[in-house]
Write a structure and sequence with these properties.
Blueprint (H helix, E strand, L loop, with lengths): L12 H21 L17 H23 L7
Helix pairs in contact: 1-2
């Protein structure tokens, strides 16, 4: 008669692993996007327009969001 009332997670281990990987991609993208400013507002720093900030960082963020989308919608391997 007594039911097993163990707390169950919504997602399985597979999903959480992919969510963590996606978060790492997103964080890395935002870290690569930061910086490049100038302390003096009268001095222009062309470093803000380099390849890393314009192409690489936003691509990593978009890939990270794609991984999150996959992690949420994929079927987990946990038993019912």
């Amino acid at each position: 008669m007594a039911k097993d009332n163990k707390p169950q997670f919504i997602f399985g281990k597979h999903n959480y692993k992919w969510m963590l990987i996606g978060l790492v991609f997103i964080a890395l993208g935002f870290i690569l996007m930061s910086g490049g400013g100038s302390d003096d507002p009268n001095v222009f720093n062309p470093e803000i327009f380099n390849w890393r900030r314009i192409r690489l960082a936003p691509t990593l963020v978009i890939i990270g969001f794609g991984i999150q989308f996959y992690a949420i919608l994929s079927h987990s391997n946990k038993s019912s």
